[in-house]
Amino acid sequence: MLTVISKRLTQLVPTLFFVSVLIFGLQHLLPGDPALVMAGEERDPVVIEQIRRQYRLDQPIPVQYLHWVRGVLSGDLGESMRLKEPVLDLVRQKLPVTLQLAVMSMIVALVLGVTLGILSAVYRGRTLDHLVNVVGLAGISTPNFWLGIMMILFFAVELGWLPASGYVSPFEDWRQSLATTIMPAFVLGNSIAGVIMRHTRSAMIQALDSDYVRTARAKGLSEGSVVLKHAMRNALTPVITLGALEFGTLLSGAVLTEQIFSIPGFGKLIVDAVFNRDYAVVQGVVLVTATTYIALNLLADIGYILVNPRLRA
Amino acid sequence: MRSILAAGAIAIAALGLAPTHASAQSTLRIGLAEDPDVLDPTLARTYVGRIVFASICDKLFDIDAKLNIVPQLALSHETSADGREVTIKLRPNVRFHDGEPMDAKAVKFSLDRHLGMQGSFRRSELSVVDAIEVVDPTTVRLKLKAPFAPLLATLTDRAGMMVSPKAAEAAGDRFGAAPVCAGPYRFVERVQQDRIVVERFADYWDKDKVSIDRIVYRPIADSTVRLANLKAGQLDLIERPLATDVPEIKKDRNLTLQSVTELGYQGMTLNVANGDAAKNPLGQSAKVRRALELAIDRDAINQVTFNGLFTPANQWVAPDNAWYDKRNPVPGRDVAAAKKLLAEAGVKASLAIDFMVPNNPETRQVAEVIQAMAAEAGFDMKIRVVEFATGLSEAEQGRYQAFMLAWSGRPDPDGNIYSFAKTNGPLNYGKFSSPDLDQALEESRTATTREGRKAAYDKVADVWLKDGSVIYLYHRAMLIAHTNKLKGFTLLPDGMVRVVGLKMN
């Protein structure tokens, strides 16, 4: 067990190295000069030169890369050119926001997706199944930005129940926090719920058709017990894998949704940074996201090993 | 359906999620179109940042609705006969937010900081200042390298914002994280991309006119969502709603819309001498450039794209501006004359132009209208949409023939023309150069009377509007929408939200 984990951890090092080179390289392939973008309308050639020197933009890319890596290894992700703030502070500010939104979206997605998936499998071929399928497909195919704006117009402008956008931390006021995140969490969760629903449905259908379920029924178990205790347990394994992957994606920031609801998370931060060629911010955020993603995968792998002894070899 | 809605309402009420409105403190919530950059007057560069500065950092001078320069932290000024010395009398007993005195020493410190700090975007604006002298605690004297007519106008913007020397020295280049100035509101907190909060400064020099307790600035990039927040009562004022949303705002009885012609312009910059791309009839012949101008119907652009809300432009200032050259009104469209000019310039076949356009829906639409109009005169405008940062680099390196470029505008005409038309000016993307024009531009800066300056600008117009490398298209309308609960707001041409005198009912 320990050897497997340590093997995984050693693989982590080259993966992160590869990711870091990729981020840095791709970033510098983008056309556009950060110093010019930063100066904007104030084009003083002397100052533009100063900015280039200050942020080492005048040095060869490998030198810039080494400087950045040295900083990262000592816990310094650099400074935002646009905001003059350490990238680490920005990440600390945004990560909890993105995390909260991701967790809430995942809850919405799992509750909706799994429930509807099971219902649809149990009532296979009947009206409810068709209805759930239509709803699921609608969920997958509705663009987030459209659903988001419609929800704002309905729940905030028409009915006045919820704040139209913005964000309040749960530590400040949990009610307001819930109020500001419930719509974006629903929008994000909704699209994932559709996918989870379809996976749950097919896994459940397979499980319900299997021999052990027939045996369980033959033993005279109640239908509820058959579905929830026997079939669902087995059917959920692929759903959990899918959920973990989707959760990783959510952590990298939901750009459009954050933009619409003005949620100050990773997505907004990185979009602004890319357009402003704020290299340090893009690199920092992508590195943190990639590391989290890899760590989640590692945890999932360890989880499988724990559950399935056959993988321990 | 109704029962579901009722159940939802009850659930939301029970949880206490419904938006809270009333509180004992009065708060003004302002929706910004972008997230401001660093809040340090020396290092800041965005338009939206200036809107926030309007509440926290007072300036030596300000502008009024007619663009006259009026004192703010200054009381009066006097320029020496040779124009090389400007003596500024300061308002007495003014304090910064940290209680430090805003006196002549602080003014000298702030101006020296603008001039000498690494990465200062104010350096070029004040480069004519040779030395700053403290005459007495309420008097400073600016010694200039040469007479400079736009100086006071420069001091109505960030270059005129004074910072607390104590706070600035302590914070260094991190001053923008918690700016300490002498405005009506003091900085409280900023959460990047979420909010900037300021609260009333009790010792403000004009405190009787400040009645709102707090101001919260919230960047909301999407204009539909910004407007939705205003309609839902989550915001009290929004800047820059879309021109296409104007009818909807006007229809809403709870909202007021204010509109004023901007100080800047949207234009088309033509490459006349910047690299190989300039070596074509458009770059080489003023006749071809005028033919392109004659092919364009500015009125039609305004009607089709902006519901007629904007102002057609043909100069660097708007037609209602005192510096506008009335001898050269906005020309109408004349395709026959355009064709004739092209023939005179020896252009026979359709002339292909690499037309670089920044990626935003409005600009793209304007470009397409221009493309259609120019085609009728014999131009083949090949639109190349680029993202903003890329566009800047391409323009700098001369990889374009025509480039749609907007300028946010300055109160003094110098800010709209000098750097764009002067040989090797930092904003002269087309690399236009004319000794006569350069001389007229210098005269416009050194002239000591208004008449002298006007005469110099007429000379500038004679060259620039005939041969120049910018075709001006339109002046946008600065739009601000606010709830009727907000009283006392007047929109000036710079689009700023001035907070002194505002009241929330």
TrEMBL record, chain A:
Database matches in InterPro entries: BPD_transp_1_N, MetI-like, MetI-like_sf
Pfam families given in the database record: BPD_transp_1 (PF00528), BPD_transp_1_N (PF19300)
GO function terms (MF aspect): dipeptide transmembrane transporter activity
Transmembrane region(s): 12-30, 97-119, 131-157, 177-197, 239-261, 281-307
Record key words, sorted: Cell membrane, Membrane, Transmembrane, Transmembrane helix, Transport
Subcellular location: Cell membrane
A single Gene Ontology CC term: plasma membrane
Domain of life, per lineage: Bacteria
The UniProt record lists the keyword Membrane: yes
Predominant location category: membrane
Topology relative to the membrane: Multi-pass membrane protein
Domain ABC transmembrane type-1: 95-300
Signal peptide: none
PANTHER family noted in UniProt: DIPEPTIDE TRANSPORT SYSTEM PERMEASE PROTEIN DPPB-RELATED
Family named by the database record: Belongs to the binding-protein-dependent transport system permease family.
Protein name: ABC transporter permease
From TrEMBL, chain B:
GO molecular function terms noted in the UniProt entry: peptide transmembrane transporter activity
Pfam families from the UniProt entry: SBP_bac_5
GO cellular component: ATP-binding cassette (ABC) transporter complex; outer membrane-bounded periplasmic space
Localisation per UniProt entry: Periplasm
Keywords: Signal
Tagged with keyword Signal: yes
Family statement drawn from the similarity comment of this UniProt entry: Belongs to the bacterial solute-binding protein 5 family.
Protein name per the record: ABC transporter substrate-binding protein
